[in-house]
Amino acid sequence: MSDDKSKIVEEMKKMEYEPLLPAEISLIKWSICLGVGLLIMFYFLSQLLFPGGH
User: Fold this and answer.
1) What is the pLDDT of residues 3-42, one digit of tens each?
2) Does the reported pTM lie above 0.70?
3) Which of 25, 47, 35, 10 is nearest to 2 (CA)?
């Protein structure tokens, strides 16, 4: 197990840093905004449909 872990560490040290592409940054932003927006929407929807449950 320790041997596998050391191999992984060595390989990660060899990897070069790659900055995110603009398309990847855009996808990350859209995903976060969509997730937060859906959480807010579902919270208020549950308040509306199940008022006694909160």
Assistant:
1) 788 888 898 888 888 999 999 999 999 999 999 999 999 9
2) no
3) 10
